[in-house]
Design brief:
Elements: H1 4-15, H2 22-28, H3 33-53, E1 59-71, H4 97-109, E2 114-119, H5 128-137, H6 142-156, E3 160-164, H7 170-176, E4 182-184, H8 193-196, H9 210-222, E5 227-233, H10 239-256, E6 259-266, H11 283-297, E7 302-304, H12 315-320, E8 325-329, H13 346-354, E9 359-362, H14 368-377, H15 387-393, H16 437-462, H17 470-482, H18 489-496, H19 500-518, E10 522-525, E11 527-531, H20 559-571, E12 576-580, H21 591-602, E13 607-610, H22 613-623, H23 627-637, E14 639-641, H24 652-658, H25 665-677, E15 682-688, H26 694-711, E16 714-721, H27 728-731, H28 741-754, H29 766-778, E17 784-787, H30 794-798, H31 808-816, E18 822-824
Parallel strand pairs: 1-2, 1-8, 1-9, 2-3, 3-4, 4-5, 5-6, 6-7, 10-17, 10-18, 11-12, 12-13, 13-14, 15-16
Helix pairs in contact: 1-2, 1-3, 3-11, 4-6, 7-22, 9-10, 10-11, 16-24, 17-18, 17-19, 18-26, 19-28, 20-21, 22-23, 22-25
């Protein structure tokens, strides 16, 4: 029971613009009567600040849309839903393409600019009729059909798709981003009781697990998808649940900046549902929830209330509670989720809004800050293939909709020309405007400020490197002599954190094992690294290589230039070219196949070692094909193997601190597994010494051993010390300055032990460790020094001071310095014609 003094104190803090504590926000959710009136005043002020910040003072927005119910089948069983149904009540499991396009055309004729796709979650997992329909029409899954229909709508009507297919994986989001300026999924509630307990609103609905839904919001943020989410109020959640839900949305919004609007939707009981007798949420309870949401989210996120779920006389109080957006309103289609509640006419909504002293304006499906960020500032919120579709409907002065612009179909396709269209003759993209690099650095620093809480949690759990008692190390060493790959994690942790004489003993054992397995020759490959573009929009916080397209140092090589570099390398004796680039959304569907062919045409017989798992996952998603099919295409074009880079640490706890938008560990493993299965071997890597802990190193190596047991496709393991000098995550104070030499010795040595019998080759990076560091690793378990490279940009940009190329003579000198012979090898560790010379 809230006391009157607690309410007065909480209201006073809200009135004075103070940051509300969780307990104060909980009190304010109970505001009623005069207390509610007092709460609405600061909520109105924050609403006005939100409008001002968005560049539309005193303007409430809405989106003119059509509602496309692609399928009403769903694998969930939400007990308040009348949208989902059963197959025998439908003429077909899915709307046909003709039906989809007719709805979109009707909307375009009525001045709509948005096509809201709504549908049940993965119906093919529950309903055979859905699976059969998809199979009969040539679609692998529902997401594939959603993507295809979004493209058809773009090309034939010009409406902008907003996709609401329910729970989406990271790869689903990546597949859909090129065809939709925005997406959405209601969080609804963080209440686990409603999901796990019989009788709960979400019981029996696998997609309503709050943890799963929060992961969708986070993945959308990492991928830079303008995203709509929100609460469903009154479905049996407690007031504390309500507050937890608001705070969860606030956390994601602050961390990633991709939550464009938070819908606060009031439950309305419906006949023919299990919750038909549940009372609707009370008006004052609903208003208090909106007001607290507005206060907690602040001015950076729009707060929305569906106007058709409240009576017209309630509109002024909804606005006073903090609403600054009415969401999608359709002059054509009903609200298929709430069909008993018709949409108000736009003219009526405009009049009701004006009665509160505000003006109604139309926006696009993505809010103005994302539209202008993409079109004017080259920010990666909207895929470049959508830019012309968005630009055609946008008022570029405000980022809102150009209400006079008709929706007209436009081609949706890969950018013309692929790599050959960029930088021909210069190797660089033409630049048309100046870039404030200091401002860009400041923007990145603000990202780190937002993620600092996550890193603090990781750091709290891992502490500093523990010192293991010598007796434990000696016991583990004794066991390792008999079974180097069969130790427990605790034993390996003791070895990898050892120091002094103990570490010397670990390195001796690793070196003895190396000698037994691969002999004394130090191996190397004559190769050339070709970084074909440094344009990248992923946002890795350790990378100083990546540039935005408009940055002064951005470059993209033409196909001709790539071929010339490959031919030069072959003429100098190279047997391999290694190709990697940034994640550039402008690369066309055939770009990677074209790159491989450019190399093989210019340098016949050379081994093409190319494309990290991150590049592969992104390219396959953009092409709308499975990873397996994409890999088979580039393999058939001449790809010989892939680099197992972009692994960093295969633990999402660490990955989410290091990267923003990079593929999850499970996706990395799946791409590499598939590559091995289609006959493309790979290296494996681990970047260490940043925000990680030795137990993460052990976990990473364990993960690699499991995959190697499945596929046998790894040719080598390459430990990559973190180069901190220019890394944003270090400059922001979030990471340590790379590993120590003790760390380097321990990682190489323990890798030799753990991977014994699975991965025979341990490579050490002369680029990152220099000559003396490389020699030290070769005396502690490593047997390979990688390649001559001829050029290497990524480590150099990060601040490596050890050069970007080595001659064969220089590599031979590294081995000579420790009394070892050298042998040239192929990419897959076979002997070359010149081996032993």
């Amino acid at each position: 029971m809230t006391s009157s003094s607690e309410m007065r104190r909480s209201l006073a803090r809200a009135r004075d613009g103070k940051t509300l504590s969780e307990s104060e926000a909980l009190v304010l959710l109970g505001a009623r009567g005069e207390d509610l009136d007092a709460l609405l005043a600061p909520a109105t002020r924050v609403r006005d600040a939100a409008m001002l910040r968005a560049g539309r003072p005193q303007v409430v927005t809405y989106s003119r849309k059509v509602f496309i119910p692609l399928t009403r089948l769903c694998r969930d069983r939400c007990h308040y839903c009348t949208f989902a149904t059963v197959p025998h009540r439908l003429p077909a499991a899915f709307l046909s393409p003709d039906e989809v396009l007719q709805i979109a055309r009707d909307g375009a004729a009525q001045g709509c600019k948005e096509a809201l796709f709504t549908l049940g979650d993965r119906p093919e997992d529950r309903w055979p009729a859905a699976r059969e329909w998809l199979d009969a029409h040539g679609y692998d899954d529902t997401i594939a059909y959603v993507r295809a229909m979004a493209v058809r709508v773009l090309e034939e009507t010009g409406l902008l798709p907003h996709l609401n297919p329910g729970v989406m994986s990271w790869s689903d989001l990546q597949r859909l981003k090129p065809v939709a300026p925005s997406m959405g999924m209601m969080l609804e509630t963080t209440s686990t009781a409603l999901f796990t307990e019989p009788g709960g609103a979400h019981y029996g609905s696998p997609d309503k697990d709050p943890a799963v839904r929060l992961r969708v919001l986070e993945d959308a943020g990492r991928l830079g998808v303008p995203f709509t989410t929100g609460l469903l109020v009154g479905i049996g959640e407690t007031v504390q649940d309500r507050l937890d839900s608001i705070l969860a949305i606030r956390r994601v919004a602050r961390e990633y900046g991709a939550v464009q609007e938070c819908i606060v939707q009031n439950f309305r009981a419906k006949d023919d549902t299990a919750m038909r007798a549940t009372p609707d949420v009370g008006e004052e309870e609903y208003l208090a929830t909106i007001a607290v949401t507005r206060l907690l989210l602040g001015p950076s996120v729009s707060v929305q209330a569906p106007p058709n779920l409240s009576a017209p006389q309630q509109i002024p109080r909804l606005l006073a509670a903090g609403v600054d957006d009415w969401g999608g309103v359709s002059p054509v289609t009903p609200d298929h989720v709430n069909p008993e509640r018709p949409w108000p006419q736009v003219e009526e909504l405009s009049r009701w809004t004006a009665e509160s002293g505000l003006r109604l304006a139309e926006r696009l499906t993505a809010h103005p800050r994302y539209v202008l960020g993409a079109l004017e500032r080259d920010e990666p919120w909207i895929d470049p293939r959508l830019h012309e579709h968005v630009r055609a409907l946008c008022d570029l002065a405000t980022g809102l909709a150009d209400e006079a612009a008709p929706a007209v179909g436009r081609p949706w396709q890969e950018p013309d020309g692929g790599l050959a269209a960029h930088g021909a003759g210069t190797g660089r993209v033409d630049l048309h405007r100046e870039v404030d690099t200091q401002g860009r650095t400041d923007d990145r620093r603000s990202d780190f400020d937002e993620v600092y809480g996550d890193w603090a949690q990781v750091a709290h759990r891992v502490d500093s490197t523990p010192q293991r008692p010598g007796s434990h190390v000696r016991e583990a060493l004794s066991r390792a002599e008999d079974d180097p790959a069969g130790l427990s994690d605790a034993d390996y942790l003791a070895l990898i954190t050892s120091d002094g004489d103990d570490l010397d003993a670990v390195c001796r054992l690793a070196d003895d094992l190396r000698r037994d397995v691969v002999g004394d020759d130090v191996t190397y490959v004559v190769n050339r690294n070709i970084n074909f573009t440094n344009v990248c929009y992923v946002g890795c916080r350790f990378c100083a290589f990546a540039q935005r397209r408009t940055d002064a140092d951005a470059f993209t090589l033409s196909l001709e230039q790539i071929g010339e570099r490959a031919a030069e390398a072959q003429a100098l004796g190279a047997t391999e070219v290694c190709l990697q680039g940034g994640i550039d959304p402008s690369l066309g569907r055939s770009a990677y196949v074209d790159i491989v062919r450019a190399v093989t045409d210019a340098a016949p017989g050379i081994h093409v070692h190319a494309f990290s798992p991150m590049e592969i996952a992104t390219a396959a998603a953009k092409a709308g094909v499975p990873v397996r099919q994409w890999l088979e295409e580039v393999r058939d074009a001449g790809l010989g193997s892939i680099p197992g880079t972009a692994a960093e640490i295969l633990d999402d706890e660490v990955r989410w601190v290091l990267t923003k938008g990079k593929l999850p560990a499970s996706q990395w493993l799946e791409v590499v597994r598939t590559a091995h299965e289609v006959g493309l071997p790979s290296s494996s890597t681990m970047m260490y010494g940043h925000v990680d802990h030795p137990r993460h190193w052990i976990g990473h190596l364990r993960t690699l051993t499991r995959l190697q047991d499945e596929t046998g496709g790894f040719t080598e393991f390459v430990p990559l010390p973190f180069v901190h000098h220019n890394a944003p995550v270090y400059l922001a104070g979030l990471a340590r300055p790379g590993p120590t030499m003790r760390d380097n010795r321990a990682v190489h040595a323990v890798a030799r032990l753990m991977l014994h019998g699975r991965i025979p080759n341990i490579q050490t990076s002369w680029v990152k460790l220099g000559v003396e560091g490389t020699r030290l690793m070769l005396r502690g378990g490593a047997n390979d020094v990688g390649g001559t490279l001829m050029e290497e940009t990524i480590s150099r940009m990060a601040g490596s001071e050890h050069g970007s190329a080595k001659t064969v003579a220089e590599l031979r000198a590294i081995a000579d310095g420790i009394g070892r012979g050298v042998r040239e090898r192929t990419t897959t560790y076979g002997r070359t014609a010149t081996a032993g010379r």
